[in-house]
Amino acid sequence: MKMTVDFEECLKDSPRFRAALEEVEGDVAELELKLDKLVKLCIAMIDTGKAFCVANKQFMNGIRDLAQYSSNDAVVETSLTKFSDSLQEMINFHTILFDQTQRSIKAQLQNFVKEDLRKFKDAKKQFEKVSEEKENALVKNAQVQRNKQHEVEEAANILTATRKCFRHIALDYVLQINVLQSKRRSEILKSMLSFMYAHLAFFHQGYDLFSELGPYMKDLGAQLDRLVVDAAKEKREMEQKHSTIQQKDFSSDDSKLEYNVDAANGIVMEGYLFKRASNAFKTWNRKKPDHIRRWFSIQNNQLVYQKKFKDSPTVVVEDLRLCTVKHCEDIERRFCFEVVSPTKSCMLQADSEKLRQAWIKAVQTSIATAYREKGDESEKLDKKSSPSTGSLDSGNESKEKLLKGESALQRVQCIPGNTSCCDCGLADPRWASINLGITLCIECSGIHRSLGVHFSKVRSLTLDTWEPELLKLMCELGNDVINRVYEAKLEKMGVKKPQPGQRQEKEAYIRAKYVERKFVDKHSALVSPSEQDKRSSSKSCEDQRLSHARASIHTPVKSNDSGIQQCSEDGRESLPSTVSANSLYEPEGERQESSVFLDSKHLNPGLQLYRASYEKNLPKMAEALAHSADVNWANSDENQATPLIQAVLGGSLVTCEFLLQNGANVNQRDVQGRGPLHHATVLGHTGQVCLFLKRGANQHATDEEGKDPLSIAVEAANADIVTLLRLARMNEEMRESEGLYGQPGDETYQDIFRDFSQMASNNPEKLNRFQQDSQKF
């Protein structure tokens, strides 16, 4: 550290020392002014930012109100809801940024000014005081006369003591100056670096958010282009219709403009008519004609009217078969006609003679039609009361469509505990951690993002598109399962979960829960005796499975719903009948001697993860990872096989996805040079092959026999896997030739893989073609 003021010069109290002090004191005074100004500007920025967040939130609420108003337009409502949710998260990001700014700039620099600069000022006051005392002592010592020995000794003693005190205070002052000059660099840089990291996190979170929203915005943009084209087309059609109608001459037949006929809705005729009051005075209301002008219609053999469209129709004549209609020429008003029923009569007035004739003709026609109708009213009621088979079918079909259209949010929230945030308990969480399999509120999801993707991968349940295998993974775990692992010791430790809104408490709790894993019961036995017995039977079935595969290489085997053969005891997948097991797996005797399936009271986490992966036991896998299991742990007793390879042998697509989401290496191979893609190809697991290719598996890798996955699939004559491997290889070559490194590929490639993923997760029976074809021969 370079000293600002030399200690040796301090002892000399030379002019050079005084000049250095003067320069430092001026510099510190200016530094204090600059820091005070910066803190004030920071406070103003934070206040402005908070006001911006308030205004932005009001604007976002306005978007939500507009979305609710547009509930009859699904496209507008869905889009505005998604955008308002994204803006809400950006507001949260802004709030976090301003909080971190307040801690890094305002609080830190204010503390530096109040503490360190205050110490400097106190040291300066002491130095100035003792310096003045020293000067006085020197003057007094110089003024004492030689012959006054008593005063000479007294002045000398005072001068010695003052010099000693001066040196002590001066040294402390110089030390304070040097420490301050050194510390101010670190304090300023530390606060500014923290401030810049806060900005980095803010823009990174915003980039991630809008990267997830990008595909939806792109699709919406394409849809908007179509809507613009359709709107322009509709505008031209309406303008043409407007011009055509405008050119017509209605002067000769005004009645066509005054009434309407809607045969599709059973309306024979409708239009405005004046109605005479049915009271004893039989009057027409001349002062308020709108009180007697009504919208009449003839429908369902009835004459009805209504004042407003939303009003329930008032029935004037219930059955036109019992009525007659006639002209009325004996009253003063023109264009009147009367509809007479056995119980009452109704006097009506049209706006012209042609309209009166049209109404009279319409009533007469309706009367005649009512007599010709076949069947009585009771038969119609019977038909209405007994639903037809077609209606039942349509109801079932609509229900099926509803189930198929069920959102990711609805499916995931059906899992126990998922209706509230896993960490703070806030209701209706809209975010999820896909590698943990839990649901989160928006505030906890932001904290999970800050932990890093190696701890938690956050995704939106409403804004993101969910792959089928990922959605199944979420449904296999859930908040209750994970909390039983990560909060096992919570009650014993007396720790309470944070409440919604307590952000600092949430940050500390989530970091302790998932990063430090303080609440995991690390002393609990990882495997129970019942599971030991189950695993022993699994070992027996596995040995039988391999023996059966070797004994019946070309014998048809019954396949299950997942498109893979099963062992007769526990339903595990067996080797495809057309693949040589002896060329792919070690001798049976060596597997029986393996320690993987030996009983033990306690397992290390890696071995537990290894076993649970084969058994498709996701809760046990999550528990092993919570106990710090290495997701890429290799079993030295089983050819260096990994948990991911065991998941392939177990035949579960969801288990493979869980391991991959938690950092499993898709290209890690065993001692025979076979990775997960090799094993999935050998076993004919089409869904797993598709998953590994999507996750970046190297299909060019060869085993110790020099075989890559494609050559194995060709040898086994598995058409689906050969198609996937060749398509992935062709897509890879196209991207390399066009320089599109890191790009997913063209739309055809993505569509085909998306279809295979959907079949593997939702319709695995469609991937049975390989096994079914082999059974035919």
From TrEMBL:
Residues 406-527 form the Arf-GAP domain. Interacts with RAB35 (GTP-bound form); the interaction is direct and probably recruits ACAP2 to membranes. Interacts with MICALL1; the interaction is indirect through RAB35. This is Arf-GAP with coiled-coil, ANK repeat and PH domain-containing protein. Residues 374-398, 525-579 are annotated as: Disordered. CDD domains: ArfGap_ACAP2, BAR_ACAP2, PH_ACAP. GAP activity stimulated by phosphatidylinositol 4,5-bisphosphate (PIP2) and phosphatidic acid. It is found in: Cell membrane; Endosome membrane.
